[in-house]
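Example record

One chain of 380 residues, shown exactly as stored in the release files.
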Amino acid sequence: MEMLKEVVPQIETHNQVLILYQSMRSAVQLADRYIKTVPFPEKAIDLLQEAAVYAQTKGRSSVVRPEHVEEVVHIKTDIPVGKVALAEKEILLELERILHRKIIGQDEAIIAVANALRRSRSGITSEKKPIGSFLFLGPTGVGKTETAKALAEVYFGSQKRMIRFDMSEYQQPDSVERLIGQGEIRGQLTTQVMEAPFSLLLFDEVEKAHPKILDLFLQVLDEGRLTDDLGRVIDFTNTILIFTSNAGAELIRESVVQFRETNLKERLLDSLQKTGIFKPEFLNRFDAVIIYKPLSEEQTEKVAELFIQDLNRRLKAKDIQIAASPELLKKIVQIGYDREFGARPLRRVIQDRVETVVAKKLLSGETKRGDTITISPEEI
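Predicted structure tokens for this chain:
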């Protein structure tokens, strides 16, 4: 702060503004939390300089207030900071409904994720940990990865904010070095988080990772930071961490089929620890461990409907839409549903069969711009 007090008069004179003391404090606090690539006091000074320009040009004010500093940080990071804006309040309060536009069923997962994010944005959680950390347990094709994609889009603004790691590729003892770097080799995890600190990190099939990798994650989950091979401290406090696992999938399936869902989570976690798949200290680090259950036939049809909606968004450029009739959805599920892979094969059915029918109708001239295509089950 003392260094800022010396520099602020120069910024005020140069930009013909008045910088409030509260704005100086805001610059220090926000620079400390959100700007990791520039040291103090430079990053706080840069924020105040940019806030002064913003206040004059965008804010049309000669007084630099804390909200001007907050807006500059938002522009630089693309992450909402400071007082939660009305639009974001609406998103957070309606987060379950928004996520359910893309996720069918899995109410427990959606509620747990939404509550964790609400705690984070209201400012009552520890700033030394990631925004949220979750372990999703369940069979393939029930919505674990789709939840991560939807969350990245809702919270960070785009699915491109999701960084994905296939942990089956990190089964060897030297996998730790691949993640944090060694010598001239850049760390695959640390480098990406340094370059995109406001991201959702998805670690798929974490049970396949080498045990040393799981030990490495303990520090990230507990302290929100990780030290790379060069001694640099990588900040994870602005990330959301999601780990997925198929371990125990058969136990989940059997419990649902046999209507033995009472204490399912406790039985599953006990099994995973007894078989040595996960250690208690790893499981206890998460904000929530969430079970994803197999989808019912009705839920799977709703997933198929979501996939048709995705196709319709792509066809919008051609001014063509597909009518998702109940009969068509049932046929897609009949062809594509797989007990082992869940709803995942439905995308391939839509691609290979539904899209092929649409392509033929377009090429033959049977369908033209502005049409809504009705596809009978027999056509696929």
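Notes: The longest strand covers residues 132-137.
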